[in-house]
Task: structure prediction
Amino acid sequence: MIDFAIPADLAAERDRVRRFVIDKIVPYERDPRLTAHGPTDELRQELVELARAEKLLTVQAPESLGGRGLTHIEQAVIYEAAGWSTLGPVAMNCAAPDEGNMFLLSKVADPDQVQRFLAPVVAGHQRSVFAMTEPDGAGSDPAQLSTAAIFDGENFTINGRKWLITGANGAKTWIIMARLAANPHLPEGPTLFLADGDEPGIVIERTMNTMDRNYVAGHGVVRFDNLVLPREALLGEAGQALRYAQLRLAPARLTHCMRWLGAAERAQSIAVEHARTRTAFGKPIGEHEGVSFMLADNEIALHQCRLTIWHACWLMDNGEKARHESSIAKSFVSEELFKVADRCVQVLGGIGISDETVVEMIFRDMRAFRLYDGPTEVHKYAIGRKVLRG
Result:
């Protein structure tokens, strides 16, 4: 049986989330603490407390950690509502990279690590980072990882350089990917480590200037300068970082899609209202086919994207890894929603490229979405390989 109905209680919660975002969060979109590098920590904490007061904080977390343990389908519905403002997921503590990091730690971390590194993130008291991407290649191809870890039987010493590390400045929970050198104690290879952001061996060189500004503290360039971590800093098993990264990335691709679907809906609503009220050549511009067809294309794309997301979520909720389907979703949804945002700018005309509406910000951020968690071309490469293998 195929059932596309949203249960009444989930629909009610979706509507409550959307109303919360519209009433409480949207007014902050003009706050000067939303900087060129994203929201400041001060703004983030203020937004988090608003969500906490509404019992909407970190709802996706396992029940054992105070969340509701949402299914992937439930997340899709709620995250879409939260994404109406790019600050909505920040407030509800379901934005990247924290959302994906919390998922990974809930699956891999041991009990002591959960209490020290995961619980404070779930509670909204601190942020996290996933330090994998490097200037010399490691990113979409993590096999090029060059950051090195040496183990002497008691401590790990890590050296290397990372960049495009989202939220690095001010984050407390660090997940670090490094290549563990051959040693007589543990398997070698790409390995994950946990560290406190205040460790003296973690050096934030600078915050990069990027076109997007929806992630707290932007994207940083980081150097590990003889970072010394104890044996208990090992996250999961040595040499298994690439497997754990896949565990994190498949659902994280989908949650990106969910949140940006909400933002694209917002852009469409603004464009539709403009098309109803702006006149040209004797009638509202929406009555001209050139404009109405763009709005129609947007409506089609939004519907297709939602169904694509839901299908991948349904597979995961039924025990499938859904790597193939999540790649399809990420590549298709990111490209289609960017087209939606672009058409909304076109419908708005001159004000579309200004900050008179949030559409221009959504457009810039949506462009970056085509790169997050794997660019479209990498996903298509993986999809094509699977197709050829049959």
Notes: The mean pLDDT is 96. The first helix runs from residue 8 to 25.
